[in-house]
Design brief:
The protein is α+β, with helices and mostly antiparallel strands. Among the domains are: 504-612 and 648-884, Alkaline Phosphatase, subunit A (3-Layer(aba) Sandwich); 916-981, no CATH class. Helices cover 22% and strands 22% of the residues. It contains 22 helices and 41 strands. Helix 7 crosses helix 18 (846-857). It is globular.
Length: 982
């Protein structure tokens, strides 16, 4: 096993003293909490992020992004991604790219999506003074990060994302931008349904991303993120037209290079003069150099360590700076030679992080900006909620420069998840846009301001989905002096727990557990809040009014919480499943996932890329023949995502590509791992006709006896350790038979030191097709409850009882209301040395659970998030070694054909509220083939109405409104079918 590292305060100070004495003093002050929230650049209120364990103390002033919607005046936009300034630096443009779906809150259309307001936005600000003044808001139907302004200052351009176009906006005589200057320029990536929807992959659409303009203002280059190409647009007297397209993939440029990776997931463009475009290829970790003076051609591919994103050229256009996620660095390219001359780490200045922690990643570095004097480079670190400041003055920035002296000199605290930086003309004023905010409780759709000093938004009944509650912000401050930067760096270190150390009690407890626990079972479930399941528990902080799956449905979850520990302040770190699975398995979601998730969930294109498939292609399989064997519907093109790089997977230590999951660390430490349902390709379970008849996998309850493979792994490291007979995500199939396959496999092969078990039926769905009568929401959640209970019972009565801990978590909490926070969820830890009959209200989250598993197994942390998280020691009692558990099926399950224990004659078997036919009718149109493909807002209302009947939906004014909005939800479900069929 690896030796677990821990840092104490003395070692922190001693190490820092050797590297940077000034910062060592700062470190000592920060560790001792001697630095108060200093009034540097104005007040900095502190706000806790319960789902990450961090604090927010944004420097200077802060404004939410309010588009001033007539229908919903209090609505605030989310997911601000890019900020640019006009050539005179007096105008700031801020682009959103994310969820931003708005529902009517009153009137005859209440509950319906307001299509006019459900857009992305360009916010226009006058930045002649420090405080930005909003002058205009322009609606854009769809975007994906790309915005650029013409050197003349009279036009700006926005890429249209899934609409596969470019919008052009002109400056009017009144100084305002026109809503649109002519029709959008179509990029023309044609579709041939059902498999080809216009993007490169399996049933994916195009996505226009970064856009850049030449220095003469006559050409535009657009990065086609899902077509692995760029489009060239040219201006003429008749307007802008597309004049060329270049596929960046080596095999499409030259058939001799068929199957060679390159140019995939192009995100950003920077143009040198009028002839050379630099394009960042996220998947292949390269910057492609393209000659655009004639017919566009790739001239060079510059390899970098991390995933290159946004880029900027200096004014002389001799240096290119590119942000790099995964490696947490900035690539510096000499454009005279197109050579990579340096990669500057941007986590912190020397002396702040050091030793093992200093080598860890997890910043989500995502953008760069040069100060007007080009002495400094500002870099946004999304996951650490800061801007890193790099001093470029130590070296030349001209041709032949090495930039060897460039380094981070300080960090500036920001709002949650900064995405872009801009400056006024002399660099004295700094503007940072961030994409996220805390959500707060969601029963009545009330959320606090983005920072506590701001007023709470008006509550309303319908816009309460958690991705709607995630808001963006614009931060502004005076450029800090070097002394101020030193203090700000200490504040960032405090906010991100860089100096956090375990107490003596923590160390003693975790050392004891490491010596006595040999096995960990990690169970991940789907999508429930605390109040939705445990709100009726007699103890703990629950709200019975919000319960949908209470004790009668989930007797085992209630027993586990009562007999062991009730965790009533546990928060999922994610918003939804797409980012929930990375957080739950790797303690972080890379920037690719953070950016794609809200866009995908808003049905604005892109694919669910975070469980091993990219663009619905299983990239863990290296050969085309292998991919076709696993999923015969895959396109037979060797140039579609060749190789095994997973764009959305986190890296491991020392920049090991795609090895940043919990099981990777366990395998590196020599532990045994067994996978039951994690990262399985779900495509084969519910294929459309005629593919279902040809290639579908039968819903057999004992596939092992038939030698029937039902699980095709999507993660290469997990493939050898995956039980091929354990079915992945499939609502048709009961969790009970997932349990029986797990039990069979353990009995045959023994219990691994780390077991990964997916029990997912609490997601619910596929009511008309579900087998064995497990075909209503109550029955499916009860099935999930019993499956988890049986795993616990099996271990409790086995040879593993004395040395096994079972950890249970929801990947996210998006599908229910909670009176504390939209991220609060259920979680359980069961086994020896766990407290019994206790309530633990310590604020814990997903990352704390992963850190606890790591320490129990003697594993080093994966990244900065889990390295600075504390283990859940309040759950444990090292003197409590004896435990037992007997699973109890919900009485509701006796309505099914599951093989349950003999029914007690006195047992009253209640009926579900409605039968399968009812649920199939009210959810007709929803796509349950994979997690979160349904409209969650409508689905939540349908569940509430079917389970709770004539009770007012949380946040509604009265029962009449609840009934009216339920009818709207039914129409939305039906509309989903029409949209999918189209």
């Amino acid at each position: 096993m690896e030796t677990r590292f821990r840092l104490n305060r003395y070692s922190i100070y001693a190490q820092a003293s050797k590297t940077n004495p000034a910062l060592a003093i700062l470190s000592l002050l920060a560790m001792s909490a001697w630095i108060a929230p200093a009034q540097v650049n104005g007040p900095r209120p502190s706000q806790s992020l319960p789902n990450t364990g961090q604090q927010l103390t944004p420097l200077g002033g802060f404004q939410p992004l309010n588009p001033g919607l007539t229908d919903v005046p209090g609505w605030l936009a989310g997911q601000a991604v890019t900020a640019i300034t006009s050539p005179d630096h007096k105008t700031l443009l801020v682009l959103t790219s994310g969820y931003n779906l708005v529902n009517y809150t009153s009137g005859p259309n209440a509950g319906n999506q307001n299509n006019n307001d459900s857009t992305e936005y360009v916010f226009v600000y006058n930045i002649s003074s420090l405080t930005p003044v909003q002058t205009q808001v322009i609606k854009v139907p769809n975007t994906y990060a790309g915005i650029a302004i013409n050197p003349s200052g009279k036009e700006f351009y926005v890429s249209g994302g899934v609409d596969d176009d470019v919008h052009i906006y002109g400056l009017g005589a009144n100084g305002l931008w026109t809503e649109e200057k002519g029709s959008p320029v179509m990029l023309g990536h044609a579709a041939n349904p059902p498999v080809d929807l216009g993007g490169v992959g399996l049933a994916v659409q195009p996505a226009a991303a970064g856009v850049a303009v030449t220095s003469d203002g006559q050409k535009l280059v657009v990065a086609n993120y899902y077509n692995d190409s760029i489009s060239l647009l040219t201006n003429s007297t008749s307007g802008w037209t597309k004049t060329a397209e270049l596929d960046l993939r080596p095999g499409k440029i030259n058939p001799a290079n068929s199957g060679v990776p390159g140019g995939e997931y192009p995100l950003w463009v920077a143009i040198q003069g009028t002839a050379t475009a630099y394009v960042s290829s996220v998947r292949d970790r390269e910057i492609d150099v393209v000659n655009i003076s004639g017919s566009p051609t790739v001239t060079t591919r510059i390899k970098v360590t991390g995933q290159p994103g946004k880029m900027v050229l200096n004014s002389a256009q001799t240096m290119l700076y590119a942000s790099e996620d995964e490696s947490d660095s900035v690539a510096v390219v000499n454009t005279s030679t197109n050579q990579l001359i340096q990669e500057i780490g941007v986590t912190a200045p020397g002396g702040i992080l050091f030793g093992p922690r200093g080598q860890l990643k997890g910043n989500n570095t995502n953008s760069v900006a040069l100060t007007p004097d080009e002495n400094y480079l500002y870099v946004t670190n999304g996951n650490m909620n800061d801007v890193a400041v790099i001093d470029l003055r130590a070296s030349s920035v001209g041709p032949g420069a090495t930039n060897a002296g460039s380094q981070v000199i300080g960090l500036i605290p920001t709002g949650w998840y900064p995405n872009s930086v801009a400056f006024n003309s002399d660099g004295s004023h700094v503007y940072v846009v961030n994409g996220k905010s805390p959500t707060g409780p969601n029963p009545g759709n009330c959320y606090g301001g983005v920072v506590p000093s701001l007023p709470a938004a008006t509550c309303n009944a319908t816009n309460q989905y958690d991705l709607q509650l995630v808001k963006a912000g614009l931060q502004f401050f005076s450029a800090p002096s070097l002394p101020e930067l030193l203090l700000l760096t200490g504040q960032v270190a405090q906010n991100n727990n860089f100096y956090r150390t375990e107490s003596l009690n923590d160390e003693t407890t975790m050392n004891f557990l490491q010596k006595h626990i040999q096995h960990v079972i990690y169970i991940i479930k789907e999508n429930r809040t605390y109040d939705q399941v445990l709100g009726d528990l007699p103890r703990g902080n629950g709200d019975p009014k919000l319960v949908e799956f209470g004790a009668a449905v989930t007797p085992n979850f209630h027993a586990l919480a009562s007999n062991f520990v009730t965790l009533d302040s546990f928060f999922d770190s994610s918003e939804v499943s797409m980012d929930g699975w990375p957080w739950s398995t790797a303690a972080r979601a890379p920037d690719v996932v953070e950016k794609q998730t809200p866009v995908n969930y808003a049905n604005r294109g892109l694919s669910y890329d975070s469980e091993g498939t990219n663009r619905n292609i299983n990239v863990s399989i290296p050969t085309l023949a292998g991919r076709l064997a696993a999923d015969p519907v895959s396109p037979p093109d060797p140039d579609i995502l060749p190789g095994t790089t997973d764009t959305a997977a986190p890296d491991g230590p020392n920049n090991q590509i795609n090895t940043g999951h919990l099981w990777d660390q366990a395998l590196r430490a020599g532990l045994t791992v067994r996978n039951y349902g994690f990262f399985i390709d779900e495509a084969r379970y519910q294929l459309p006709p005629p593919y279902s008849e040809l290639f579908g996998i039968p819903e057999d309850t004992n596939p092992f006896s038939l030698g029937l493979q039902v699980a095709y792994p999507t993660n290469g490291a997990l493939t050898p350790f995956t039980d091929p007979y354990f079915r992945g995500f499939d609502n048709i199939f009961p969790d009970y038979y997932r349990y029986t396959e797990w039990a069979r496999d353990v009995a045959a092969g023994g219990l691994a030191q780390l077991s990964l078990v997916r029990l997912m039926h609490d997601h619910t769905g596929n009511f008309s097709d579900a087998i064995l009568g497990v075909n209503t929401p109550e029955l499916q959640v009860a099935d999930n409850d019993y499956g988890v209970g049986l795993v616990v019972q099996t271990i409790a009565s086995s040879q593993y009882a004395d040395n096994t801990l079972i950890f249970v978590i929801e990947d996210d909490a998006q599908n229910g209301g909670d009176h504390v926070d939209a991220h609060r969820s259920i979680a359980f830890i069961v086994g020896p040395y766990v407290k019994q009959h206790a309530v633990v209200s310590t604020s814990y989250n997903t990352v704390n659970m992963i850190r606890t598993i790591e320490e129990v197994l003697g594993l080093n942390p994966l990244n900065l998030n889990d390295a600075t998280a504390l283990p859940m020691t309040d759950v444990f009692d090292v003197n409590q070694s004896k435990w037992n558990y007997t699973a109890t099926p919900s009485a509701l399950l006796y309505n099914t054909m599951l093989p349950l224990p003999t029914q007690n004659a006195a047992l009253r078997v209640p009926k579900p509220k409605h039968n399968a036919a009812y649920w199939a009718r009210v959810t007709k149109g929803f796509d349950f083939s994979a997690e979160d493909r349904v409209d969650p807002v409508s689905f939540n209302r349908i569940l509430w109405q079917g389970l709770k009947g004539n009770q007012v939906y949380p946040g509604d004014a009265n029962l009449a409104q609840t009934r009216a909005l339920y009818k709207k939800a039914l129409k939305n479900a039906a509309a989903s079918r029409v949209e999918r069929d189209d």
